[in-house]
Amino acid sequence: MLTNQSSKSSKSTDQNHTPSRIWRPHPGPQTEAFRYFHVDELLYGGAKGGGKTDWLLFDFIEPNLIQKANYRGIIFRRTFPRLREIIDRAYYWLTGQASYNKQERCWEWPSGAKLYFAHCQHEESKYDYQGHEYQYMGFDQLEEFTETQYEFLKAQARSADRDIPVRVRATANPGNIGHLWVKRRFIDDKETMTVYVNKLGLTSMFIPAKVYDNPSLTTNDPMYVKRLESLPEQDRKALLEGDWNIFAGQYFKEWRHSIHVVEPYYIPEYWKRFIALDYGEKKPASVGWYAIKPEGGLVRYREIYKEGFYYDTLAREICKLTTEKENIEYLVSDPAVFGDKQHHKEARETESGAEVMQSIINELPEERRFSVTRGDNRRIEGWRTVKRFLKIGDDGTNFEIFSNCTHFITTFPANIHDERKPEDLNTDGEDHTADEARYACASRPPDTVFPKKKLNPNSVWARYQRKRKLNSQGSYIYG
Length: 479
Known about the structure:
Rossmann fold, Nucleotidyltransferase, domain 5, globular, disordered N terminus
């Protein structure tokens, strides 16, 4: 279905009697994006200057829906300063069609239909919109959001009116904290301009657009393309060409999925193990189980990544997942756990989170108990230690991640540099697995060496090692 915005009358006026302007979609990707009205999730753009923001505004103003009194939409930016850009664009185009309520940041049409503008700066900010109902939900620059923010907010897109369908729309450029999950969700292993149906029957698609598809911009500012062409190669490929294989600003440049991610393999019982934790209640708590290789490397073999845990319930879940044969030395946690006395399900107001967790761990049989210790919270030094573990040498890496740790594999490599403090990473992203890894690595210097035990050549571990060497694919086999 093509939404032709030129059908809107220039005679309509707002309370200031300012005449409205006429907007028409450009031929090509912008026009095509309106044809896929019934697609549930649609990502548009992928490069700078493709007319993304205007498309997002006018995609809401569907002629058959804008006349309905209970039609509601919302468009998000990550921060309020960035939201001003789209508010300014709305002033330019919508004045004369609808009236604007500055306090609520809402445009209201004569029919009663409303379009809100909002931001979601922090992970927990998503809860400000819990219970809301929007039939149209837009994300301008989706790559600035975390996947957990997107999933939670998207759950507020629903309709009590069967005549008003629910649509989720987004724009994006390559890069930033959401690069990897946006790429995985809309681009990897998918053809552009193609509708895909998931196992639940929901549809999604990606429509790419570049600056060359926006003649208004190239005509009014012909030097804009030249400025994009003058960018460094990595930025030019991402922002001018829309190349999603480029990831500008990645913090852990040492990360190589093909090397650091391994298939689960047998871990000998004599390998020492520990647990690392970055706590979150209204944001995900990240828990990782680590085994220490005899030569000093780490293997992350199990995880919890979930929000909503209290200290006592999280401790019980950790104890439940830890088996009798695991030789856990300690649980290293973010220091805030040692002062936080709020997040307890049980009435234990005088105890810190660390004390609550320790008391529950102490309910285990004596030979299975382990201590809760305070993590080293020096950020820059901690990141350097993580990078040393990630470093790839002739013998591989000192940091392996089992492929079943899907949340770590998704979120850890997506972290980017902080623009104001480049030696640190941007904390607006999903940095929970990164913080957890920082506590883990800081508790075990990478040059630590543990004495090797002499193995029986017929033992299970020796047989596994021989099979691993014989595997020409380089993956890890156990049997």
